[in-house]
Structures are given as structure tokens and as C-alpha cells.
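Example 356, ligand manganese (II) ion.
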Amino acid sequence: MIENIKELRETLIEAIQNSSNVFIVGHEGPDIDSIGSAIALSYLASYLGKEAYIIVDDDELKIEPRLKTVIDKYKEKYHIIKKKEFLEKANKKSLLILSDINNTDRLSVADSLGKVGSIFTIDHHGENELTVPANHIFISLNVSSACEIITRVLMNGKIPYDKEIASLLYAGIALDTKNFDLNTNGKTHDTAEKLLFNGANKELAEELLKEEYDSYCRVKGLVISGAVFKKYTESVSAPTNVAFALNRERPKQIYYKEEFAKAANDLINLSGVNAAFAMGYVEPGIVHISARSGKRVDVGIIMEKMGGGGNSQLAGGKFQTEDILGLENELMGKVKYGIREEEETIESPPPMQKRP
Ligand SMILES: [Mn+2]
């Protein structure tokens, strides 16, 4: 495990120089921290004279529009490629850098790690059982973002970078700190200041944060004005309450899949809610349902009956329909299959034995 920025800079530069070519990958469902840090790393590799590629394998329709604009803008300049091209170009001397991720959970190339000779992880999230066994690992939970780490590497090596890189790195830090509100310390502010001094434009950060805010409003809209609650068991002491959320005013509104997961999470966290379903269109004619529950309802069984899947507390599905309210009705009818019988807490006494 690499201990500090200076050691990271030295190890990273050496690893890049010793490679035949460099690939950088962030987490699936990219954001400006993963993309911004990947672009700065791609820049660093080309600065060191190496061919570098950024792998983004997500379905383009599912990437937030403002971030998609950024990806499209830099696609040629910083060689943003799909996994297929990575598989063609990678060899046993290639270096793969994981930026803003350290595990296989949201990693598009998780099944192809053996394609490269060396893996280097740079992240600010904790490790878990799915953490990739990389050759070099720098993980610091005390740094706001992957973009802050890369900025400090560039600063530490006195490596010059242009205004575009500065703006992308600034935007990544701004996103992961909710505009410098969370997870910051003196170093974060110093780093951001340095980026502004080097020409970072705050506009990109503001645009991308606005997208985050719009998404926040869409999720809260589903929870606040779109939820209905139904009681499923008659028990007065402990009724089973289930929440169903969808956009009732404009049912055909298009959402990002993750927004249903967030809405369902918000609902299941309300006291007295035993299961929550959030649903809506992810593209015309395609409805996504996200389901969450506590112990008393098995949403896995319910979603299976609907034709989806998942486990008892976290499930979902994709459905082709123009009639979302009809689908909700069908779902409301199938919830009964997932209600768990109240457990018998008192053992009934054994039957009396008749004397022979
Ligand atoms: Mn991040």
C-alpha cells in the first residue's frame, strides 16, 4: 500500500514508463470525478510519452446528459474507448489504472483483468471483499476525491497541465464535496485554489452540480408527491405498510434507473414502511421497478412473480409496457406473495399424553 502522494507520484510514473501502453478505467455509472481523474491520468501518460486510453463501457443512453457532453468532447483527444477495443489493444506489458474505484462491483473490465501485466489502483473509497488485488494500491479515505489525488500528484511532480484539465479536476472535487460542503480539509481547499490559479473554470462544475441537483429534485418528487401507501396485514399492533412511488402527474417522464433505487431507499428508511417500490420509464415503453424491504416482506419473491428478480431485501425488474399504472396495479396484487407470516413466538404446549 502506497503511503503518501510523493510515493504515489514516483510509483505511478515508474509504472507508466515501464508499460507498453496505459488503460484507465473508472466505475460504471461514471461521474465527473471518475471521468475527470481518468482524463488527467490519460494526459499524464501521454505527457510521459505513452499511449493511453480511457475505458467507458456504459450504455451511452444511460450516462447523464451533461457528463455525456464532456465524454463526447474529449473522446478523440484523450482516447475514450469501449471495453471491446481495450481487449484488442491490451497486452501483457499494459498497465491498467483503476481510478475512483478499487473493486470488481462496478468495474466494466472485471472479467478481463488478466489481459494486462500490471494493475494500479487510485481511490478514495474503502476496500471490501471485492477489492481488486492490484500490484500498486493508493487508497486514502482522507482525500475528497480521485480528482484531488491526481491534482496533488501533478502538483507534487510540478507537471504542467492546461485549463481544460484544471477545470475537469476542479469539477470532480466540487462534485464529491457537494461544492466544498462535505469531506473537505485544508488540503482540499488548497488543491482547489491551485486549480483555479491555473485557470480552472468553475462553469463546468456548476453545470454538473446542477445536473446532480435536478436529479435530487426528481428523486424527492417521486417520494413526496408520487408515493402511495397500502396496508397489507390486518394486525393492529404491527400492520405491514408498503409504499409505491411513481410520477402520477406525468407517468411517462423518463428517469435514470438509479433514481428509482434512491427513491425506494428513501421510502424504506421511513419509519413504519416495510417495503418500497419506485418505478417509472427509463426509455419510452420500458419501465424499471426498484424494490427495497425490511425483514417482514420478501421483495425478491414479489419481483420474481412479476418477472424480475433480486434478493429478499433488494430487487427489481425491467418491463415493457405503455401502461405503468396497470403494472403498478399488478404489482400491488402480487405483494401478498412476499409477506412473511408473523413468526410464532410462543411455543404451543405439547398435547397431553393419554395414559395407557
Ligand atoms: Mn469519487
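Summary: The chain has a mean pLDDT of 93.
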